[in-house]
Protein: AsnC family transcriptional regulator
Amino acid sequence: MTYEHLDKDLVNALLENGRASLRSLAEELDVSVTTVSNHLSDLEEEGVIRGYTPIVDYDAAGYDVTAVMQLKVEGDALAEITESLREHRQMMSVYEVTGDYDVIAIGKFRDTDDMNDQIKALVTDPDINQSNTSIVLNAVAENEQFELETDES
Structure:
């Protein structure tokens, strides 16, 4: 294997098995354990790999209501609102977006009462001009990751 695509191949191998040992990664990529360790450290330092975490099935854990919130926010309050949403423990994703709304936030809740209480608390901020909340009926694809492309892919 050439080192030209090693970082991408290493990321792709970890996407297949995030718990793979350095030794098994080295064998799969046909390089030394030291090389894998060095490249992995570089990827972590560069922020390409931000951590290692289990994939949680929130439905199985009792959080089976997913809500997608769209918010229109006063321009100068955008950073404050997005930070508040980001810090909310049940918000999975918070995006500043173009279009009719300024923010899209996706949250997981135990039930509709839990969702309703928390969303009401979030959207009562006077800097939120308008909100629209949709409840997800079926998650066709969620939290998917994809392999990085190499010239060989």
